[in-house]
Design brief:
Blueprint (H helix, E strand, L loop, with lengths): L9 H11 L2 H10 L22 E5 L3 H13 L2 E5 L12 E2 L3 E3 L5 E3 L7 E2 L6 E2 L3 H9 L4 E3 L8 E3 L9 E2 H21 L9 H15 L11 H7 L1 E3 L10 E2 L5 H7 L17 E4 L4 H10 L4 E2 L2 E8 L4 E7 L7 E5 L1 E4 L3 H4 L8 H7 L7 E8 L3 H4 L7 E4 L5 E3 L11 E9 H9 L2 H12 L6 H4 E8 L15 H12 L5 E3 L11 H25 L1
Helix pairs in contact: 1-2, 3-9, 3-17, 5-6, 11-16
């Protein structure tokens, strides 16, 4: 018999919602109860009254650095950016055919993708509520197209369930909801919830479960029109003298629960993914290229920062060519916005307070690997009718994501053959690029039998081997945030830090942009106050 507590605390209610209705419902409840909020972008910063001739040096031409440069120059500041790479964008990066990339350790990959095909090794999607990034896309005329997060025709896979055979996302979702709805309906009819709900409310709950779970009029989940409209038919309805349609059979409830594949269906219900998601047409670096155009003439490329010194009057930054050639050079400014990743900044001699230095050293960087695979044809569309979306697997590659553009186009296609996190990411990063690619093809064959025959070429980026960041993103612990976060974000004499690591939206471009806007607005206030008191 189902046992229910007679009273719910807020925490118990949120946990119950999360387990039964998914993360999206839980997050919305959290918002209602005052426990969560959306992005707080409020538009361009107010930088009126900038003292004429004030020089600001920006370290790093990623999105945080370019946002700062764009807004500060517009306000009248004299701005310069030092950037390690020969391009702007940082982790906002796209790899196309003809591109070369050399990782730490010296391994060089030359991408052989066909023209027009690409992979985004860093950011690859923009949620609907990332208002700052979307605002700059609109302002700069960056064309956006849909990013398909959830495709019910994609796959979920476990090597330990269903004989290792991949299952359709829609089957897992429909059957999990259907079986759960039937169980709850039985609990209602058995009287197990009589103390918690009135008779009228019990009827409403039964009606809700019938519609939510695709139950029959008898409140059962079995082969029927209702369940087949959710999970698909064994024989699809046709026309004329085509075979008569047949209902599909739901999978066994216990086998479904034991498989744990139901955990995968929550991804699309998380706040970032439950509504429209976007990608720039042609690659994520369209955003970086737009900022590069808007900050033309401000970026000094191929500049590796080796020392940062400040006193009460200026900031002095020493740098040399990133390729190691040439003599050490110095750039001086009145103020500095440093957007270097903490994984890099922690290795550079820096004149700063002990509290800021401690904060810089308190944040490790998460590992991640992305592998782009080009195939001879778009078999996922032609053979399996998967147009965009993501498949999930318990093999080390974790995800396969299908391209969200050029549907039905003949010729070759590129998909994201692996998106690896955690311990698997460190294992893959320790491999050579060629080994990573071979493993991605091997594991991908568990989901798509066409992999081995159709594979053409690939590229693999392990973020701890990326020279300008040494990791994927700043991975704060709750304890580290409590102790160090405010110290990291404070203006330290004449230096302020910005980037996704200085935000509560780590690993997202939105976090980098919001952090930068906040940093330059606070810096501007200090600059104006300092000028008035001089």
């Amino acid at each position: 018999m189902v046992q229910m507590a007679t009273k719910f605390s807020k925490r118990q209610l949120l946990l119950a919602l999360g387990k039964t209705a998914g993360a999206a419902t839980m997050y919305q409840a959290m918002t209602t109860l005052g426990f969560a909020a959306q992005s707080n972008y409020k538009g361009a910063p107010n930088l009126a009254g900038a003292p004429k001739g004030t020089r600001v040096l920006i370290l790093g031409a990623g999105l945080a650095g370019m946002v700062a440069a764009y807004e500060l120059r517009k306000a009248g500041y004299t701005v310069k950016i030092l950037e390690y790479n020969q391009r702007a964008g940082g982790r906002c990066w796209t790899i196309r055919g003809g591109d070369s990339y050399t990782e730490l350790g010296g391994a060089t990959q030359k991408c052989k993708f066909d023209p027009g095909l690409y992979i985004n090794p860093g950011p690859w999607r923009i949620p609907y509520h990332h208002h700052a990034v979307l605002g700059y896309c609109k302002q700069f005329g960056i064309r956006l197209e849909p990013f398909i997060q959830v495709n019910y025709n994609a796959l979920v896979h476990s090597t330990k369930a269903f004989g290792g055979k991949p299952q359709k996302y829609r089957d897992i979702q429909a059957d999990f909801q259907g079986h759960t709805a039937e169980l709850l309906s039985k609990a209602v009819n058995s009287g197990a919830l009589d103390q918690q709900f009135s008779a009228q409310d019990r009827e409403k709950l039964l009606d809700a479960m019938q519609h939510w779970g695709g139950l029959t009029q008898e409140k059962t989940y079995r082969p029927s029109l209702e369940s087949s409209l959710r999970r698909g038919f064994k024989v699809e309805p046709g026309g004329g003298l085509m075979p008569t349609h047949e209902f599909s059979t739901p999978m066994d409830h216990q086998e479904l629960v034991d498989s744990k594949l139901w955990k995968r269906i929550v991804d699309g219900q998380e706040l970032e993914f439950q509504s429209s998601i976007f990608q720039p047409a042609g690659g994520m670096d369209m955003i970086a290229k737009a900022f590069e155009r808007e900050t033309k003439g401000l970026v000094r490329y191929n500049a590796k920062v080796v020392r940062i010194h400040q006193d009460d009057k200026k900031v002095q930054v020493s740098f040399r060519n990133s390729d190691g050639m040439g003599a050490e050079q110095v750039e001086t400014a009145d103020w500095c916005v440093c957007t270097l990743p903490l994984s890099i900044l922690s290795q550079i001699p820096l004149t700063a307070s002990s509290s800021m230095l401690a904060a810089i050293n308190a944040v490790p960087y998460e590992g991640s690997v992305k592998i782009g695979l080009q195939f001879k044809r778009r078999f996922w569309e032609q053979d399996e009718h998967i147009y965009g979306g993501i498949s999930y697997t318990d093999t080390p590659i974790q995800k396969i994501a299908y391209p969200n553009t050029d549907y039905g186009k003949p010729g070759k296609g590129v998909l994201l053959g692996a998106y690896v996190w955690g311990a698997n990411a460190f294992e893959f990063t320790a491999m050579s690029p060629a080994q990573r690619i071979r493993k991605a093809v091997e594991y991908g064959g568990h989901l798509h039998k066409q992999y081995a025959e159709e594979f053409d070429n690939g590229v693999a980026v392990g973020w701890h081997r990326v020279p300008w960041v040494h990791g994927c993103y700043g991975k704060w612990s709750d304890e580290a945030r409590e102790r160090h976060y405010k110290n990291l974000c404070q203006i330290d004499n004449r230096i302020v830090l910005a980037g996704e690591h200085a935000s509560f939206i780590p690993a997202w471009m939105e976090g980098a942009v919001l952090s930068s806007l906040d940093a330059i607005e606070r810096l501007h206030t200090m600059v104006v106050a300092t000028a008035k008191s001089a």
